[in-house]
Amino acid sequence: MGKITPQREQYEKGLPPKPSCVELPKTVNILGIKYTIEYCDNPADVDINKREAFWGQIDYWTRTIRIYRKDLAPEDIWQNLFHEIIHGIVAALHLKSLKADDDKNHDELDLLALGLTDVLIRNEWLKT
Length: 128
Ligand SMILES: [Zn+2]
Description:
The chain has 128 residues and is an alpha+beta fold. The protein has helices at residues 6-13, 43-46, 74-93, 96-99, 103-122, and strands at residues 27-30, 33-40, 56-59, 64-68. The protein has a single domain, classed as Orthogonal Bundle (Arc Repressor Mutant, subunit A), CATH 1.10.10. 44% of the residues lie in helices and 16% in strands. Strands 1-2-4-3 form a 4-stranded mixed sheet. Strand 3 and strand 4 form a beta hairpin. The structure holds zinc ion. Residues 1-2, 83, 87, 106, 109 line the site of zinc ion.
């Protein structure tokens, strides 16, 4: 699950102008496991239990990733998507250091997602 971190806010202040369009994938294969990606306009729909509002959520049982989309810039959607994909990688590879479902891990995972999103933008793979 993804939350906004202070590091991300800090980073966004120095970001170049926002790309305006991007094609969002509907599936992702993570180390041989295929997930369906659903985009939600209501943050409560992101939570499979519909109890909390999330930016994104990966469900290992249904192999679904749900991402909040409404009113978000493409790079934010990509960062949230990468966050959930990294959760999928961590789960598939049993990466113990990032596996715990706590705030510290989610923050670190979010920074990795930020790094990947930054690569997309700086290399202009994500462009207008
Ligand atoms: Zn998370």
